[in-house]
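Long-time lurker. I teach an intro course on protein structure, and each term I like to show students one example going from raw sequence to a predicted 3D structure in token notation. This year I'd like something fresh instead of my usual example. Would anyone be willing to generate the tokens for the chain below so I can use it in lecture? Attribution to the forum is fine with me.
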Amino acid sequence: MNVKLVKHVIAMVSDKYGKPGSINGDYSLGDVTAYRHFGSNEEIKIFRDWPSTSVYLNLINISNRRRLLYELHKQKEEQTANKAKSQGNAF
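-- Reply from a regular --
Happy to contribute to a lecture. Here you go:
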């Protein structure tokens, strides 16, 4: 229930990796998100989604994440096409 925990985690990560490139939100109320980029391919994201006081830390490989999102998009398009085809055959 510590609303300031996100500020503490951001400070710990900043001590090790440097200050975040951007921090959005209010530590005492609401969503908070901080990003720290490493080169063009790595990113650390620290965030809290309000009203939860849980703090999350994501280590992201940006190029792999883009590939994953692309694959998910392709799968969704295939599922939509297959569903439309199967419903079309019902008539």
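Some talking points for your students: The chain has a mean pLDDT of 92. Strands lie at 22-26, 29-38, 42-48, 56-61.
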